[in-house]
Amino acid sequence: ASAGSESRVWLAESPGALTPLPATVDAAVQAVADVTGDGLMDLVGISSEGAFQSFAGVGTRDYHWQILRPRAGQALGDQRINAFTIGGEVEVRAGLLFQKVPITSPIVHLGLGEHAASDVVRVIWPNGDIQSEFDLAGDASIFTPQRLKGSCPWLFTFDGEEMRFVTDFIWRSPLGLRINAQETAGVVTTEDWVKIPGEALAPRDGVYDVRITAELWETHYFDHVSLLVVDHPVDTEVFIDERFAIPAPAMTPRVMDAPRPVASVVTDRGEDVTATIRDRDGRHLDFFGPGAYQGITREHTIEIDLGEEFPTGLPASLVAFGWVRPTDTSINIAISQGDVRPMGLVLEAPDGQGGWRVVRENLGFPAGKTKTVLIDLTDALGSDEPKRIRLRTNLEIYWDQIQWATHRPEAAIETRRLDPVAADLRYRGFSALRMPDRSSPETPVYGDLESTGPRWRDLEGYYTRFGDVRELLDGVDDRYVIMNAGDEMRFAFAEQPAPPAGWKRDFVLIGDGWVKDGDYNTVFGQTVLPLPSHGDPAYDRSPTRLVDDPVYQRFPEDWQTYHTRYVGMERFRDALAGW
């Protein structure tokens, strides 16, 4: 405590007990820091003459300490955290000693008492991401991994040998997502269809094993889940247009001939990248460079020569497989304060005068990772025009494969929609992630469980209790399963007789529901309430008491039978303090 040019010092002898030092400090203390580098805290102040002075701390006990230098990654296009992570928090546990301090400067000093090392240090970065480090001794520098914190639930299937990651799910219905500083994106559709290739789903013990996990900083509301079995001739392929676009593409199986390779692909910088996009091999097209913010880059194009075999005038589509690095609410608010605006895919064709004309715009982008995009090329080119097209955007879209295929609407297919014979909710934890390079998406590995403890600041409220939840998923009726981070839904669908000779099988997972992430700028992003409903796509009703929520009032018995698991902030907050 300082007054004028004099300061007094109190030392904590035990929790709640402060003992004053007998001597005063002849300066107005401005800062407490380890100036001498010996791990003991020193005082820095201004004397009565206006000169800076420092006072070295000395002691008799064998105290230890830890100095953390949190740093955000400085990669362009990934600046989600300020350079010194100011505004974050650090927690440290060493034996029975626990401390929690805010990050207010580039250097964070943690006293360890007589412990030589910390057992665990947890850094809560300013964007809400969490990082834990174990058994740190002495001076340590911690760097954020800059992971995505929201990207919808993940779909896994049993392929005959192991659980395989297929794609993310329910990507089209984000709740409370701000598109700029003032406006919130309304939910256009709550339904989602994603293809499961036949080789990715094999029967086991008479059922198809399908699992959906919640692993990011999100709450999921699943209203319906079913499995569509699609049998079709071996000389055809079935696709789902897995784009995020407004209006949403028709959710129905598209029957096509086997896709054909394009003749060439050239970037706007003249680089021939045909070899990169010819096969679906995990090598992604990455030539546009990062922008100032995650998800947005410079406006760029790829020019695609469809080849002489492309049938001008017949129904055909571009079949492109890839992923998008998304923005989030906080990024959208930041972007809205400048001149850059996100621009979805635009299809262009030669204008006959050496330039390009717009054929179709507002085509959206892949709805997450490992998604197939179908872009209709029917009537895009005249019979006497070069068989070339161009895709233009300023989004970070990474293509793995680009082909074209003719439509086969006359081809006979057999479909059967299956409701689950079993649907159970349980706690699982968090998968390890693999990301071989920046142009590849983070891919979860089901067989490698990274942790089971709380990873995020959960959205507070009532979630569905563990156990049988099949009743809640029967139809689209606003009775839904409410999933928290770390939860998993396991589905069993009855095995179907094999397709006849000359036919093959694929699957489509059909879902309906919503996703709400915990981004600090997401509207109502801190709580499970308000409860979403199909009659309220705007999602602009402020949360009230649970008993006053319209969805609760329609189905109050569900909060007696199913939604009985209350999740508050305590589980995350006290994870280290109560260890």
> What is the count of DSSP helices, taking H or I runs of 4+ residues?
5
Unreliable stretches (pLDDT < 50, length at least 5) are none
What is the overall shape? globular
Structural class: mainly beta
Beta-strand fraction estimate: 35-45%
Mean pLDDT over all positions: 90
Helix content: under 10%
Cα distance spanning the termini: 34 Å
Q: What is the CA-atom radius of gyration, in angstroms?
A: 28 Å
Total beta strand runs: 42
Largest sheet: 7 strands, antiparallel
What does this structure look like?
The chain has 579 residues and is mainly beta. Helices cover 4% and strands 41% of the residues. The strands form 13 sheets. Strands 14, 15, 17, 18, 34, 38 and 40 form a seven-stranded antiparallel beta sheet that branches. Strands 16, 19, 33, 39 and 41 form a five-stranded antiparallel beta sheet that branches. Strand 3 (10-14) and strand 4 (17-20) form a beta hairpin. The two termini are 34 Å apart.
Outline the secondary-structure elements.
Blueprint: E1 2-3, E2 6-7, E3 10-14, E4 17-20, E5 28-33, E6 42-46, E7 52-55, E8 64-68, E9 89-94, E10 97-102, E11 108-113, E12 117-124, E13 130-137, E14 154-158, E15 163-168, E16 191-196, E17 203-204, E18 207-213, E19 218-233, E20 236-239, E21 243-244, E22 254-257, E23 260-261, E24 264-267, H1 274-277, E25 296-305, E26 316-324, H2 329-336, E27 346-350, E28 356-360, E29 365-366, E30 371-376, E31 388-395, E32 397-406, E33 414-418, E34 422-427, E35 430-434, E36 443-451, E37 461-463, E38 467-468, E39 481-483, E40 487-494, E41 503-517, H3 550-554, H4 558-561, E42 565-567, H5 570-573
Antiparallel strand pairs: 1-2, 3-4, 5-6, 6-7, 8-11, 9-10, 9-12, 12-13, 14-15, 14-18, 16-41, 17-18, 18-40, 19-33, 19-39, 19-41, 20-22, 21-29, 23-32, 24-25, 25-31, 26-30, 26-32, 27-28, 27-31, 34-38, 34-40, 35-36, 37-42
